[in-house]
Amino acid sequence: MLTMTGSEIPSDTRAEAIDMRDLAAYPTDRRIVGARCEEGGVIVDWDDGRQSRFHAVWLRDNCACSACRHPQAMERQFLLIDAPERITIQEAQTTLGGHLLVRFGAERPGDAPHVSRFDAGWLRHHCYSDWARAERAWHPRSWNALGNSPGTALIPTVEYKAVMETDAGLAEWLTAMRDWGVVLLRNAPAEPGEGLRIAGRVGPVRPTNFGTSYDVVSMPNPNASAYTPIGLEPHTDLANWRWPPDFQLLFCVANEAEGGGSILVDGFSAAEELRRCDPEAFDLLSTQPIDFRFQDETCDIRHRAPAIELDHAGAFKSIRFNNWLRAALDLPEAKVEPTYRALRTLWGYLRDPRFQLRPRLAAGEMLAFDNARVLHGREPFDPNTGRRHLQGCYLDRDLVLSRLRLLERRRMSEGEPKSGPR
Amino acid sequence: MLTMTGSEIPSDTRAEAIDMRDLAAYPTDRRIVGARCEEGGVIVDWDDGRQSRFHAVWLRDNCACSACRHPQAMERQFLLIDAPERITIQEAQTTLGGHLLVRFGAERPGDAPHVSRFDAGWLRHHCYSDWARAERAWHPRSWNALGNSPGTALIPTVEYKAVMETDAGLAEWLTAMRDWGVVLLRNAPAEPGEGLRIAGRVGPVRPTNFGTSYDVVSMPNPNASAYTPIGLEPHTDLANWRWPPDFQLLFCVANEAEGGGSILVDGFSAAEELRRCDPEAFDLLSTQPIDFRFQDETCDIRHRAPAIELDHAGAFKSIRFNNWLRAALDLPEAKVEPTYRALRTLWGYLRDPRFQLRPRLAAGEMLAFDNARVLHGREPFDPNTGRRHLQGCYLDRDLVLSRLRLLERRRMSEGEPKSGPR
After folding, report:
1. How many CB atoms lie within 10 A of CB B135?
2. For the domain that residue B321 is a member of, what is the CATH number?
3. Is residue B61 scored above 90 in pLDDT?
4. What confidence score (pLDDT) does residue B16 get?
5. B273 and B126, same structural domain?
6. CA gyration radius, chain A
7. Which residues 320-359 of chain B have a CB within 8 Å of chain A?
8. Distance of CA A46 to the CA centre of its chain
9. How many angstroms separate the CA of residue A342 from the nearest CA in chain B?
10. How far is B147 from chain A (nearest CA, A)?
């Protein structure tokens, strides 16, 4: 690899390879066919007719030379705040290798101008023109029960062996988790601890006040509703934490009791229906924080947050809904009755068969679902009619997405064709 | 304890104690002197002249009888969605013990009316009238360097021995962490592992891609800027995680090298200055998500979030600012230059001596600070002039606040006078 700093420009750039100080691959079949300075930045023309515009400040900030990025840590060392307020470009050109070379204006009179090189694949991948941002946009794939008989028909399904033994199987499992928010894994050995072993394919699990993993069985002195045989309304787990666990893995060791079927609801679908049918209730639930709490001998964990969290563009970030963790509402008087009405309306959708899937887990099967999006519940069961034993644990979204990126990194370095995980 | 269900009303309520199914104490010197049904709820008069109003639906939802709350798990079993849409109250009265008794209207003709009892202390603590909400309101205590010489003069300070050996010392340490966002602990043994032992007074630490704890030393092949001797601009840690760690504990084992002083900035103060002086920049940074990323051989963790996160009332939730974890900005073209300008303006405040404290940690001292609020940095140091060794770990806010509540629970059960942690 050839690493450039300062104003040095090699005369022969045919064999150049730009060090992006980046472990990810940015493969592209596209070449830059033209580059010119314009309007405080650089206009880049691609060989497929697309055009990108990069601002001077953005290019300067993203220079990956060994002075601007730490050679080992790969982190930015360049301090924009010490650069002139107006960053200028003297020259932009396409290298013989089809990459981009930019010579910036000297920061101070007499200084050598800074030269940056940008890999074409990296640039294409990071282009922020409208067309490129639209191509990269990701949306969760929403679902409900319409047109399907109750059961697992709709749930993406993967095989235990593929997930445990192959990169492709692991990527398929995690991609379904990310995009659909739910995935069934089957044909695992029906043994305690197997859920944690599967989670180990991703990374460390997220510990909570219930430990690193927990046994969902009927107990004589339960500290939580899950550890009773009573039915559980659709809910998200640990809504009383500032940051509830992202993904839940629920592994079935045994399910022989009468009852105890599972319930799954895409909370984003249900909340979208609320937005459509009762915009006032939706506005209230997506702005007014409400109170959640769990207490036992060892902890008292409370948090206030809206039931529906949106980003500034109005897209769903998360759902919090849990009747038994909801604490006494602490709201301005005028909002108490409207908030109860709104919660009730949303609750109605969560109970509506249109939105529910009702799979029944068998021993050796595991559901993984997005706890910020997919609500889960269960029918009551009779512990006198047979054994019911689930084991649960949680995974951070950060680590799930990181694992997908590492799988992609490895696939690219092994030269497989590109597709799948973004 | 006397637990009430159904419509049963004891004739002698003088010795009554209401089971709130709550492990926290709600002590009050106040008594209810009057209660009447009005406007779809109950008006309660207190002996200090205050008045509370509780809606019928709120009271019904918070009934703590053994049918409405699980006797062991203490979680709500009552399902509002199965109750009539309009909840009515037949009768409200003050018990001889000064508590509140409510008899609801029968849900269906012929049903016995449901009776709920509410402990006066619990009610007073959960009253949501404007005056009560104002009394309970909590705000972080903001700070800057004005009027103080550089140093640790402003930083709340606690003694190692008190924190390790007494409940009061532990509560004082955690209360300062919560309210000021920074606290210095001193006179600890200057030994590796001591920071983790102190953290153990709260609960399990938060693991990240850097492990459960990490050594801040200059390394030959660093995977992060912290592990070099270079200066670090004020920053928050792990801004590339969806949920960066809440509190950072930075324990000083040795600090003998030239340079290496610490820098602390109350990010809420600096951001408030931005809101005052450049509202446009503030609006942009508090709404437009920007990109963060960390990568090494084992992970590639990315997240997009606004640099300043506000709640719907405009109060600060968190600050994310980290120059070396900031990834290539992926913004609509028109926002690129304004976002860079806004980041630069905020950065200017973070660098401004008005906002900076510059303590120098000595061996056996530990800084704990709120990583969602307080930015930290360091001056460059020369590893050839002496040893510099810090050890860091992280604590979840949920567990810090939970520990404070458990300390308060224990203090109340031991009958000490009430003050301190909320």
Report:
1. 10
2. 3.60.130.10
3. yes
4. 61
5. no
6. 26
7. 323-326, 328-333, 336-337, 340, 343-344, 347-348, 351
8. 31
9. 11
10. 26
Provide the CATH number for the domain around residue A96: 3.30.2020.30
CB half-sphere exposure, A226, CA atoms < 13 A: 20
Quick: pLDDT tens for B305-314: 999 999 999 9
d(CA A24, CA A9): 26
Are residue A92 and residue A164 in the same domain, yes or no?
no
Report the pLDDT value the prediction gives residue A220, as an integer from 0 to 100: 80
Across the interface, which of B73, B129, B340 has its CB nearest the CB of A224?
Answer: B73
Assess whether pLDDT exceeds 60 at residue B255.
yes
Packed helices B333-351 and B267-277: angle between N→C axes, nearest 10 degrees: 120
Of A68, A100, A134, which residue is a domain's last? A134
Q: Give the per-residue pLDDT at B421.
A: 38
Q: Is the pLDDT of residue B273 over 70?
A: yes
Residue B2 belongs to some domain of the structure: no
- A405 CB near a chain B CB, below 8 Å? yes
> Which phi and psi (to 5°) does residue B345 adopt?
-65, -45
Query: Which among A55, A223, A312 has CB closest to B337?
Result: A55
Whether B90 has a pLDDT exceeding 80, the answer reads yes
Q: List, in sequence order, every residue forming a beta bridge with B294; answer none if it has no partner.
A: B301
Q: Please determine, for residue A13, whether its predicted confidence score (pLDDT) is greater than 60.
A: no
Give me the percent of chain B exceeding a pLDDT of 90: 80
pLDDT for B2: 34
* Cβ–Cβ contact B73 with A under 8 A: yes
CB pair distance less than 8 Å for B300 and A406: yes
Residues 6+ apart with CB under 8 A from B124: B26, B28, B30, B46, B52, B132
Residues on chain A touching B224 (C-beta within 8 angstroms) = 73, 75
Structural domain tally of chain A? 2
Higher pLDDT, A417 or A349: A349
**Per-residue model confidence (pLDDT) at position B256:** 92
- In B, minimum Cα distance to A75 occurs at B324
Tell me, yes or no, if B82 comes closer than 8 A to chain A by beta carbon. Answer: no
Same domain, B57 and B181: no
**Distance (Å) from the alpha carbon of B397 to chain A's nearest alpha carbon:** 8
- What does residue A372 show for φ and ψ, rounded to 5 degrees? -90, 0
Task: Check: CB of residue A391 under 8 Å from CB of residue A213.
Answer: yes
Domain containing B401: what range? 157-411
DSSP A87: -
Cβ-based contacts of A401 with chain B (< 8 Å): 301-302
Average pLDDT over residues B5-25: 62
Are residues A185 and A85 part of one domain?
no
Split at pLDDT 50, 70, 90, the class of B14 is very low
Contact B340/A22, CB-based, under 8 Å? Answer: no
Judged by CB atoms closer than 8 Å, whether chains meet at A55 and B348 is answered as no
Query: Which residues of chain B does A312 touch, with a Cβ-Cβ cutoff of 8 Å?
Result: 287-289, 306
A165 and A51 part of one domain: no
| Residues B165 and B60 reside in one and the same domain | no
For residue B368, is it within any domain?
yes
Q: How confident is the model at residue B98 (pLDDT cuts 50, 70, 90)?
A: confident
Q: Is residue B364 part of a domain?
A: yes
C-alpha to C-alpha distance for A78 and A71, rounded to whole angstroms: 12
Option in B53, B70, B331 nearest A128 (CB): B331
- Name chain B contacts of A305, Cβ cutoff 8 Å: none
Residues B128 and B216 in one domain: no
According to the model, what pLDDT value does residue B96 have? Answer: 85
User: What does pLDDT average to over chain A?
Assistant: 91
Give yes or no for A74 touching B (CB within 8 A). yes
Helix (H, G, I), strand (E, B) or coil at A356: strand
Helix (H) or strand (E) holding B253: strand B247-255
Is A211 part of a structural domain of the chain? Answer: yes
Residues A232 and A316 in one domain: yes
ipTM above 0.85, yes or no: yes
Distances (CA, A) of B386 to B85, B221, B229, B367: 72, 19, 12, 21
